[in-house]
Amino acid sequence: MSIRGQLRHLFRRFTWNADVRRVYKQREYIEAYSWHTDVRVVRDPHEAVGGMWEEIGKLQFYFLLRMGLRPADRLLDLGCGTLRGGRHFIRYLESGRYTGIDISERAIASAHLLVETEGLEAQRPRLLVSRNRDLKFEEFAGETFDVLLAQSVFTHLRPEHIEECFQHVSSIMHPASTFYFTYAEAPEFTQTRVEGFRYPRHFFQDMADRYKFRLADHSADYPHPRGQRMAALRLKPAT
């Protein structure tokens, strides 16, 4: 690329980054993040969910297999995006056992297209846009899931959003359910980008204690190429 071309590229990138920061300042965070994701999906459905499409998609799938995922299990893929991992789960699970939800309408539209392109319609995956853009799980009232997964979700959420999840997720779990989630670790809470956050492990332990979960670390079983940690929540037995 010529020097002039490089300068044009840098200018476009600078302008885009400035536009993104402006949107996050002007809008409520979840609304801004939804918009941001929509734009990235239009540009590239694979890169919009963090890239490494094959590597991280298979990593999620084989991890849950090792954890005991069975074809008959009901799986909720929270923040399913454009089905980086979802496509593998849909193919493996029995028909109608996969549910994916995301705040991005563009991501879910891309997910529907992928299901058609890869011939997965017979598996009847349920793909939902989170209309309320919250983590109260009201769209699943009366349902429970055997396995729940949030890959690269808490890395983009603020503390109050994660607490909302911990507060309400038990409503869609039964005594044998497991909720797996990844997070980016740091000694203390750190915001790394307008939509990037790192947390200390004790943050999740405190939340687990507050909302009566047992927290387990599965990071040794989950060699994430960018160093994300994997943890699991299970309901504490009733006393």
Description of the structure:
By secondary structure, this protein is α/β, with parallel strands linked by helices. It has one domain (45-235): 3-Layer(aba) Sandwich (Rossmann fold), CATH 3.40.50.150. Helix content is 39%, strand content 21%. The protein has seven helices and nine strands. The protein has helices at residues 3-26, 29-43, 53-66, 86-92, 105-117, 159-168, 201-210; strands spanning 75-78, 98-102, 126-129, 145-150, 173-183, 190-193, 196-198, 213-217, 229-235. Strands 3-2-1-4-5-9-8 form a seven-stranded mixed sheet, with helices on both faces. The chain has a two-stranded antiparallel ribbon with strand order 6-7. Strand 4, helix 6 (159-168) and strand 5 form a beta-alpha-beta unit. Helix 1 (3-26) runs antiparallel to helix 2 (29-43) and helix 2 packs parallel to helix 5. The protein is globular and about 50 Å long. It starts with a helix and ends with a strand. The mean pLDDT is 92.
